[in-house]
User: What shape does this take?
Amino acid sequence: MESEELGGAAALSWTDSGWPEARGKPAADSAAAAVAALYQHHAVGLIRLAYLMLGDRAGAEDAVQDAFCGLYRHWDRLADRDRALAYVRSSVLNGCRSALRRRTTGRRLLTAYQPPTASAEAAVLGLEERQEVMRAVRRLPERQREALVLRFYLDLPEREIARLMGLRPSSVRSATARALKALGHALGEPS
Amino acid sequence: MTGLENKLRAALRDTAGEIPDDPPPLWLPPARRGPVWPGQRRWISWAAPLAAAALVLAVVAASLAVVHGGSGRTTSKPAGRAAVPPYYVALTAPAYPDVYSGNATAAEVRATATGAVLAKVVPPKPYVHFAGVTAAADHRTFVLVAEEKSHPPEEQPGEGPHPYYQPSRFYLLRFDPGTGRASLLALPAAFIPANAEVHDMALSPDGTSLAADIGRDYVGSHLIVFDLATGTERAWSFKTCASCHPSGGGLGFVGTNVDALSWTGDGKHLAFVGPNRAGWPSHSTVRLLDVTLPGSDLLATSRPVASPPPEDRLTMVMWRGAIITPDGRTVVIVEEVASDGAAPIKVRDRLLKISVATGRVTVVNDLNVLAGYQYEQVMYSNATGNVLVVSGARKGKTAGILHGDRYTPIPWDRHIATAIW
Assistant: This one.
């Protein structure tokens, strides 16, 4: 009952092209199938992207779910559906920014709490260096952190990063340079 | 590329790798009904908050259903990367006697890594204690049972003292990691009838159903599943003999009625401790109830999935906890084994894993209680049971992550009565 009313978990029928069979179905079903297919292919990568921004797995999953729900709602208005991934990636980043802003009031507690990279188990596994890097990344201003993650995790070209962040390519370059400099300073290494 | 850039790239890649390869299912909002005509706009506008609420519910339900081990999902990552959820709820009391007796005066959301208290709630009046806590799989949704102050048993003329159980109520606790705030929501008072006790409870992985063993000691326990969205309930009970009171002997059967309820990750099966068969003689067995099947006979609608090892049946054994892992393949049992009569008395506290498919028993821990160990309690299991959070697995007031043979202590303190992830 609930899953019917709320849309439910998307079920797919796959075609050779990797896109679900949607012919002959109502428009809403077709949109759901297309969005679900996109989700199937890219959800993990997007959750990982959000996780790097937020340091919180549940929050990352929520951000991605929200982004796909938004994509579904606006599917009919999406001018270029080949750009759907870029649209949803941009939505995920927006969702992360919102989530980070909502955290302001709880910042004192949350800084005391080290997100998953510093779990007790991870500490024992001797991942101190990685944790140190990630702590430094998370201390960077939001824009600089985004620039680093998009470039060094997603390996996106500068122009795409600029489009996603709504900046000029030169601004992306300077944000990245400043971020690397700050990171090098925090880690005691030359950038 | 510089050394710093290489280090950054590796750190980002490794950290991202903590997210497993299998994403949660996608939940979409209701199917759209075609174009919106001008005359409909006002209604749509008015309905927008409702639609938004429905969407939030869908997203929450989806995230509840799929996060962490409680979801029953397995991960393709190496086992060493499996993580324990980042926070938990601990029931705490300032004084040792209250910790020991389980009369917790606060529920604290704590960080697994540091033990730091992120949020704290106290029982709303007239309640004074929290007696138990259970968690959904999202590590943000919990249910607490709050109790009023205990009163002496009431004496009835000619009948002696009646058993008395202080009034109790369930509370839903939600923790928002974004703000660091926790909120309490009272669940319907009618869920716990007067003069009855909540022996055990388990919140379903998606947070929509609460299973509880409610009744009096030894007589009248029922397994009840409450639907938290609608407030409706469904009950099961059983008879151990033709002339016995319904569910005579209670759930838990011969003593185990705490930490003896658990859901599989699909939210359709509930494990509890009961007799291995109707009638006598019988022994404690973990049974699996399919809550989607019709019927109210607890034994007829469930099947045994794990029994004590044969050699244990020859000694005095009490199960202190028995839960099924979210994947439904393993039962994790904490058992107390005492020597039967012969001096000197030996009391062991053993942590066992029993394979549902083969019955194979693995002894994870075998501790001598009389040598300074406390009884163990399993507070978290990942989907497969290969990562557990256990208190009492080391000497003193301790807790840690048991990952195979490896034990990793986590910050813990003497004020914690129990906790749940």
Q: What stands out?
A: The CA atoms of residues 154 and 174 of chain B lie 36 Å apart. Confidence is low (pLDDT under 50) at residues 31-82 of chain B.
